[in-house]
Amino acid sequence: MNRLLKISNSVLTFLIFFSLLLASCRSGGKGDKKDADSLVVSGADATVYEDIKQAEKIFYTLPSPLESAMLIKSAGALFEDNLLNPIENTKTIVPTRAWR
What we know:
Elements: H1 2-24, H2 44-61, H3 65-74
């Protein structure tokens, strides 16, 4: 009896998991997909839309922090620790409310 109960619990758990997995999947085709490029925009919204597209082009051309570090490294720049702020200056920092 106890073995049968364990089997039925595992089957019930599997069915619940499978039903949640099935419910979370979208069954829509290509027609359900709405992309910002496929929108039809007119009037004043068109100018705003074009400004957004222009800003996206500028933003996406900026290198990521990792790309910036790799560019600096590939350029042969050396690390100079004498340009850093000395450790002794940490005692002179006045804490602000944001740090508390």
